[in-house]
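Think of the structure tokens as a kind of shorthand, similar to the way a musician reads notation: each symbol stands for something richer, in this case the local conformation of the backbone. In the example below we present two proteins back to back. Begin with the first one, reading the sequence and then the tokens, and try to describe in your own words what changes along the chain.
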Amino acid sequence: MHALLARELIDACGGLDEAVGACRLQKSRLSECQNPDRPPDQPAYLPADVIADLEAYCGKPLYSRVLAEARPSAPDGKSIVEEISDATEDMAELQRLVRKVRSTGRPMTPRERLVVDAAVLRLREELGDVLAQTESGGEL
């Protein structure tokens, strides 16, 4: 997910060559951070200051917004049943997206992967809401 967010942010800055001029990283390091095919044991993440610089340059909080939305949430007044229902609906949406991509018979494109990753983050947020409700002794 982080590599795809990095790619989207770098693209919003005009590509690698332009993004290099807006942050402290060299082109090779910036390129590593946007490569979704890196081995899982060798991840490359954009440093927070680089994210801030690139978002300021392009004028959009593309990366930090997703990170903020992925934070665990506090109970919002919904019942546990409502939270579980919301999570179930988000899971069904994720399933629909993955089935649609799989039905094409081709590998997932970076854009499709980004859409699926966003759906996973929404589901994670909803599951966090369920957990927050159960931990707080929320009402059914």
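Once you have a description of the first chain, move to the second and do the same.
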Amino acid sequence: MDDRPVIQNFLGKPVRFFKDSFQVELPLREGNLSVRVFALKTYATPLPDFCSAIGCKESRVISLIESSREVFQGLYRTERLPDIHGRIQPCILMAQELVEILISKILAAAGKDPLTRARMFKFQRWFMLTVGLIRNGKFQFIRNSFNQFKEATQEYRDILFLRSGHEIALRVKAIAEKEGVYPSTVYARLRQMRGGNVINGKGVPRKTRGGR
């Protein structure tokens, strides 16, 4: 697993996305017991992030996974990751493909509950589009602790992982106009949060001039 995440927010809840690879089995042909094991290169999300975003207890999601263990085999595993307070804790890391199936299962179980269904539909669309933006290279993976940006407003957190370019310039301008400050002030705050200036190819902030 690449330990550099992209962190995006769903209705104010931070959700991490990691580049990852899962070892999965694929049957070669019907009626044949032999299988092919291959590495599924995908993106992964921690179970606690998923549950926090959708407003569901972790025990319920774990029960859903265990109820279809044969289907989900290889699409999740336990990793030691920092929680929102920076403490290293064991948690389940789930492949993107598993998350998408779990969304459908929770929607099916929600019945006519309008609040659950509305939130899950929003999350389903948000998750799909966020993964698409990551695949298209719109976000940077940054090596920072999970809790490093917790004091920042969501407007700042939403652009911390964007690549330098026109989109950042537009958002910085909007924040500056809202706060009544110069865009240079907003850029300075972003540099302070990142611990440096723009993000290099390895996902690490480049230092500002003069080594500051």
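Compare your description with these statements about the second chain. The radius of gyration is 19 Å.
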